[in-house]
Specification:
The chain is an all-alpha fold. The protein folds into three domains: 70 residues; 48 residues, no CATH class; 36 residues. The chain contains ten helices and no strands.
């Protein structure tokens, strides 16, 4: 059953009236203001649990709920053996892999599993979740963060171009200290690593 559970009072009303007068399901549904399919479902659950009306007065709401809704049942229905979302995410990065193909594989392994629309909704909800990020507080110039380039050839060509540009701009100058070189370099507006003497 996909919907929310009714209160125990409603369940007792719907199931109890069936035992008292063998009423039609539509009359029970109308009197309890619930759907006929819900009445049928609860009557089936009561029959499976071998419950008889009137209910034993010792049977409280918690015990009745445990009889009608066994603990293992809810966990197996809710997950329906979904594959790991991380696995789906990585598979979708591969060429020619779509969510439809992954759903088809999932459906072959789990014929009673989610339909395509729900499968896609669950994946999209997972993708929209906020990423865990680490925010570091630091003042300007305190730390230098260097990332690794994704494309080595592009990075090498960018470094060579920057090197040529620096050498062309400083070609006709003579420097007697690293301080003079650093001041000249910063005057041309490049943000490169400082040259430090050791």
């Amino acid at each position: 059953m996909a919907g929310r559970r009714l209160s125990m009072r409603k369940i007792k009303e719907s199931s109890g009236s069936s035992g008292k007068m063998d009423a039609q399901i539509s009359i029970i549904a109308q009197s309890c203001n619930i759907a006929r399919s819900t009445v049928r479902e609860y009557l089936r659950r009561a029959r499976d649990a071998s419950l008889r009306w009137p209910l034993d007065p010792v049977l409280d709401d918690t015990a009745l709920e445990n009889l009608l809704f066994p603990v293992g049942e809810a966990a197996s229905d809710s997950q329906q053996h979904m594959p790991s979302m991380d696995y789906l995410f990585l598979e979708l990065k591969r060429p020619a892999v779509t969510l439809e193909i992954l759903w088809y594989e999932y459906k072959q392994a789990n014929p009673e599993g989610h339909q395509y629309s729900q499968f896609c909704n669950l994946y999209r909800q997972w993708v929209k979740r906020p990423d865990v990020t680490l925010r570091q507080q630091h003042g300007a110039g305190e730390k230098l963060f260097v990332g690794r380039p994704r494309d080595k050839a592009k990075m090498e060509s960018a470094v060579l171009a920057a090197e040529r540009w620096i050498l062309a701009a400083l070609r006709n100058h003579t420097f007697f200290s690293l301080g003079e070189l650093n001041r000249a370099r910063s005057s041309i507006g490049l943000y490169t690593m400082d040259i430090r003497s050791t």
